[in-house]
Specification:
The chain has a 9-stranded antiparallel β-sheet with strand order 7-15-5-6-14-12-13-9-8. Strands 1-4 form a two-stranded antiparallel sheet. The termini are far apart. It has helices spanning 4-67, 127-138, 239-248, and strands spanning 73-75, 78-80, 90-91, 99-101, 105-112, 115-122, 145-146, 149-151, 157-160, 178-179, 181-183, 200-203, 216-219, 231-237, 268-274. It has 3 helices and 15 strands. The relative contact order is 0.16. Helix content is 31%, strand content 23%. With 279 residues, the chain is α+β, with helices and mostly antiparallel strands.
C-alpha cells in the first residue's frame, strides 16, 4: 500500500508539472503576440517612413524654391501683427517682399517743414530694415507725421516714424503707432564705443527682440544707449536742423516713463523717400 507521504509527493509533483506546463504555454502565447505586433509595427514604420520621406522631399523642394534667395539678395522675416492686437495707431500698408537686396547704398531724404535731412543707408549692413523702409516710403507711410519725442538729457535723440502722430497738438497715443508687421534687429553696434555716436540714425523698438517697426531716432550727441537697436545709417545732411529742435527743448511729457517729451519746436515729415541702391 502506498504510504501517505508518497501520495503527497506525487500530488506535489503533478501540481508542479501542471504549473510549469501552464507557464510554458503562456510564454509561447506571449512570444507569438509580440512577433505579430512587432511585424505590424515594423510595417507601419516602413509605410509611415515612406510617406514621410516622400512628403519631406516634396516639402524641402518647395521650401528651397520659396526660400532660396537669388544672388545679391537675402531672405527676410516680416512678422505680421495679429489682427486682434492692432490698434487705431497701426497703419497697414502691406508687408515688404521676403527677399531683399544686400548690395548698394541708398540715400534717405526726410523732407521736413524745417528743411531736408539726409542719411546714407548701406544695404549690406541692413538689407531687411532698408527693404522695410523702402517699402514704407513707397507707400507714403511717413508723410505728414511729426517727430513726437525729443530727449535732451542722457541719450540725446529725436524720435520720429509714428504715422499716427499727425495734426495739431499732441495725443497720449503719439509714439504708439507703426506698421502692421515687425522685423528682427540688424547691425547692432555691440563692438562700438559709444554704441550710438552723434550722426547715427537707428531704429526704435519695444525692448523685446524682433520688435522693430517704423519708428526711428536721430542721435544728435554721443549716446550711451545699450546696443539693442538697429543702426540704420548715418546722417549726411541736416544735423543742424535736428540740433535746432533740440535747443528749443521738450515739454517733459515722457519724463516719468521713457524720458524726454514732445519737441517744443515742432518738426513734421512732409515726405520721406529712399533712392534706388547705388554701387
Amino acid at each position: 500500500m502506498t504510504s501517505t507521504r508518497e501520495r503527497q509527493r506525487a500530488a506535489a509533483r503533478a501540481r508542479l508539472e501542471k504549473e510549469m506546463a501552464e507557464r510554458a504555454a503562456r510564454a509561447r502565447k506571449r512570444r507569438q503576440t509580440q512577433a505579430i505586433v512587432g511585424a505590424a509595427a515594423a510595417l507601419l514604420l516602413v509605410v509611415a517612413g515612406t510617406v514621410w520621406l516622400a512628403t519631406s522631399l516634396g516639402d524641402d523642394d518647395k521650401t528651397d524654391n520659396a526660400a532660396a534667395p537669388e544672388a545679391g539678395f537675402v531672405q527676410c522675416a516680416f512678422t505680421e501683427v495679429p489682427a486682434d492686437q492692432r490698434t487705431k495707431q497701426i497703419k497697414d500698408v502691406g508687408v515688404p517682399g521676403a527677399q531683399q537686396s544686400n548690395t548698394g547704398v541708398q540715400t534717405m531724404t526726410i523732407d521736413t517743414n524745417l528743411g531736408p535731412i539726409t542719411a546714407k543707408v548701406d544695404r549690406a549692413a541692413v538689407p531687411c530694415t532698408a527693404g522695410s523702409f523702402t517699402h514704407l516710403a513707397e507707400k507714403n507711410f511717413f508723410d505728414n507725421s511729426k517727430c513726437h519725442r525729443l530727449v535732451t538729457e542722457g541719450i540725446k535723440v529725436l524720435q520720429c516714424g509714428d504715422p499716427s502722430a499727425t495734426g495739431k497738438g499732441w495725443r497720449e497715443t503719439d509714439g504708439t503707432g507703426g506698421p502692421s508687421y515687425r522685423l528682427v534687429e540688424e547691425n547692432l553696434p555691440t563692438d562700438k564705443r559709444p554704441p550710438y555716436p552723434e550722426g547715427v540714425i537707428a531704429m526704435a523698438n519695444s525692448g523685446q527682440p524682433g520688435s522693430t517697426g517704423s519708428q526711428f531716432f536721430i542721435v544728435y550727441g554721443d549716446s550711451p544707449l545699450d546696443p539693442n537697436y538697429t543702426v540704420l545709417g548715418t546722417i549726411t545732411g541736416g544735423m543742424d536742423i535736428v540740433k535746432q529742435v533740440a535747443a528749443a527743448g521738450d515739454d517733459k511729457a515722457f519724463a516719468q516713463q521713457a524720458g524726454g517729451g514732445h519737441p517744443k519746436k515742432e518738426i513734421t515729415i512732409n515726405k520721406l523717400t529712399m533712392s534706388a541702391p547705388q554701387g
